[in-house]
Amino acid sequence: MRKAIFPGSFDPITLGHEDIIKRGIPLFDEIVIAIGINAEKKYMFPLAERKRFIEETFKDEPKVSVITYEGLTIDLCKRINANFILRGLRNPADFEFEKAIAHTNRQLSKIETVFLLTAAKTSYISSSIVRDVLRNGGEYQMLVPKAVRIL
């Protein structure tokens, strides 16, 4: 069984995240969207709300589930028997950052990282941009899935 973890903070989930997950569905038997918990990080949205956004976005997709976790992603992979980590790449800086993490994860485990390039139409979107738009009262709706547009 090809089971992948798609880790992130998803604060909030964006159309870029949604695109990577949808494009990953045919590649894997199951995708577990794993919301990481970092006590040192300040989030705009509470964990329960971030989880609800994702669950609502993928409510009709049986191959997608959502969990929360703390600690190393590879430890989560081992715990739930996932053999892949799915990651999206927007630009060369993402690649360099993600490459280092993928090499480290591969060194520490047998977990493979699968990279998908973001679609051109969503490559500029990041959660931090969405949060900035929201903080400043801007039109954010075209950057996020419908579940997040109810704010």
TrEMBL record:
One of its GO terms (molecular function) is pantetheine-phosphate adenylyltransferase activity. ATP binds at S9, F10, H17, G88, L89, R90, E98, T122, S123, Y124, I125, S126, S127, S128. It holds the Pfam family CTP_transf_like. The record marks H17 as: Transition state stabilizer. Residues 5-132 form the Cytidyltransferase-like domain. CDD domains: PPAT. It is an enzyme of class 2 (transferase). Homohexamer. Reversibly transfers an adenylyl group from ATP to 4'-phosphopantetheine, yielding dephospho-CoA (dPCoA) and pyrophosphate. This is Phosphopantetheine adenylyltransferase.
